[in-house]
Write a structure and sequence with these properties.
Blueprint: H1 2-23, E1 26-31, E2 35-36, E3 42-49, E4 64-70, E5 75-77, E6 80-84, E7 87-92, E8 98-113, H2 115-124, H3 128-136, E9 145-159, E10 174-178, E11 190-197, E12 200-201, E13 206-211, E14 223-226, E15 232-236, E16 241-252, E17 261-272
Parallel strand pairs: 2-9, 9-17
Antiparallel strand pairs: 1-3, 3-7, 4-5, 4-8, 6-7, 8-9, 10-11, 11-12, 11-15, 13-14, 13-16, 16-17
Length: 273
């Protein structure tokens, strides 16, 4: 009995660790170039991993619920969707020139888990604030639950010359909206962004900001920031390079949903010259 029990425990622990690890993957949109000529395709890669801006696996094309290019006064759906190696790849040539916001949404995925694994998940994802808030309110589950999660990503690309669009709201459930033009960033300037949940400013949201490591260099520690009462956070971009801001928001699922809790993920990628 003892010999068969030990491997079972090991397998159980491994499965739990693997489940938590999979849930830890962020999703980013990383352009091949942040400025392209007006007669060239915009190419953006959807990257999913826990190490920005790498990708461990390609998101399935059929998981996309929305993929758009949004200009100052227009918007277009991205039809060219594929996977290459470990990346989701989106290609599009807009009809009009100017700055373009690229927005992608990934649909719900459900996870069955215990109350304890849900708590561990919140800690792993840096959502201790949500854990403490719901614990104080007596709302944390005590039985097995269904957790569902969806992910939303944005970036901004210059397509030839034309009007600005960085301020355009995509309409994602959880969304970063720049309050100043990311294309004008020069180190060591800062970028102010507002985080919206269901179209309203999200106060006291914990935001993580980080820069991609230089080739052959270790990753720098991310900055932990907090949004203000009006959902605004200032990201100090102290060095040139590829940057991202990201957050998650945990809420009880609405009545009628096929889940008990839902987790919204959001990211925004920008370049600092």
């Amino acid at each position: 009995m003892r010999r068969s029990f030990i491997p079972l425990v090991v397998v159980t622990v491994w499965v739990l660790a693997a489940t938590l690890s999979v849930g830890a993957h962020d999703f980013w949109l990383v352009p091949d170039a942040f400025a392209v000529a007006g007669a060239t395709d915009i190419v953006v890669r959807g990257q999913t991993s826990s190490a920005f801006p790498t990708s461990e696996s390609a998101v399935a094309v059929d998981r996309l619920t929305d993929a758009r290019v949004i200009g100052a006064t227009d918007e277009e759906t991205i039809a060219a969707r594929s996977t290459e190696d470990r990346s989701l790849v989106l290609r599009h040539r807009p009809r009009s020139q100017g700055q373009k916001v690229i927005g992608v949404s990934l649909g719900w995925r459900n996870v069955n888990e215990t109350a304890e694994s849900f708590r561990k998940y919140l800690v792993l994802e840096g959502a201790e604030d949500a854990l403490k808030r719901y614990e104080r309110a007596g709302k944390l589950p005590t039985d097995a639950i269904v957790r569902r999660y969806a992910k939303y990503a944005k970036t901004v690309v210059e397509f030839g010359n034309g009007p600005r669009a960085f301020h355009r709201v995509v309409g994602q459930p959880l969304e970063f909206v720049p309050l100043s033009d990311p294309s004008q960033l020069r180190a060591p300037m800062s970028l102010r962004v507002r985080i919206l949940f269901q179209g309203k400013p999200l106060a006291m949201a914990r935001i993580h900001a980080g820069i991609a490591p230089a080739k052959g260099q270790p990753a720098a520690k991310d900055r932990d920031l907090m949004s203000s009462a009006d959902g605004v956070v200032t990201v100090p971009a102290g060095a040139s390079g590829l940057w991202n801001v990201r957050t998650i928001h945990v809420v009880p699922a609405p009545v009628g949903a096929d889940a008990d809790w839902e987790v919204h993920w959001a990211s925004f990628v920008f370049s600092v010259k």
